[in-house]
Amino acid sequence: MTRFGEAAIALSSGVDRICLFLAKSALVGMVCVVMLQVVSRYGLRQPPAWTEELARYLMVWGGLLGTTAAFRRATDPAVVRVDENARDRRAYFAKLAILVTAAIFVGPILYYSLFGAGMDPARSFIMRMSARSSPGLGVNLAVIAAAIPTVCVVILIHLVARIIGGPLITRNAEQK
């Protein structure tokens, strides 16, 4: 394997560890916030206004970051599973199909998240969200909307690593 391949796989592994930690943290945070909301609503009869909104934003970030981990491990939904690490024609076409479909899906989303019509960053999704804030938390919605381009960049990093080295093998996958 070339230096570029090793560097791409190492970068993908590091980013994957961070994303998985953040996804798990968001899930735990979401459960804690929902529990606080339930206890406050039914026990104290006075729920905080911000809990539902925070749980929603944690769900968005956690779900999208978890999606990147699933993509890296090839545990995302698929119609047909082909061994991407094999050295045959099917593996080549499987990697080609993954490359093309991921690029077609992620490319426009990333483009319109960062740029608007005519390559104008002022008309991008992030800039439009930066003019708004959430009613319950008062957080700039660009912080929440940043999940989308962040996940797109991470998926592109994982895509390069997956084309070069195949999906990440976990201990659970080895036991099967």
Automatic annotation (TrEMBL):
GO biological process, one term: C4-dicarboxylate transport
Membrane-topology annotation of the record: Multi-pass membrane protein
A GO term, aspect molecular function: transmembrane transporter activity
Functional note: Part of the tripartite ATP-independent periplasmic (TRAP) transport system.
TM regions (residue ranges): 21-42, 54-71, 92-117, 137-161
Organism name: Aquamicrobium aerolatum DSM 21857
GO CC annotation terms, alphabetical: plasma membrane
Family: Belongs to the TRAP transporter small permease family.
Cell compartment(s), UniProt: Cell inner membrane
Classification of source organism: Bacteria, Pseudomonadati, Pseudomonadota, Alphaproteobacteria, Hyphomicrobiales
Descriptive protein name: TRAP transporter small permease protein
Signal sequence coordinates: none
PANTHER family with a match to the protein in the record: 2,3-DIKETO-L-GULONATE TRAP TRANSPORTER SMALL PERMEASE PROTEIN YIAM
Keyword Transmembrane helix among record annotations: yes
Limits of the Tripartite ATP-independent periplasmic transporters DctQ component domain: 30-164
Quaternary context: The complex comprises the extracytoplasmic solute receptor protein and the two transmembrane proteins.
Keywords: Cell inner membrane, Cell membrane, Membrane, Transmembrane, Transmembrane helix, Transport
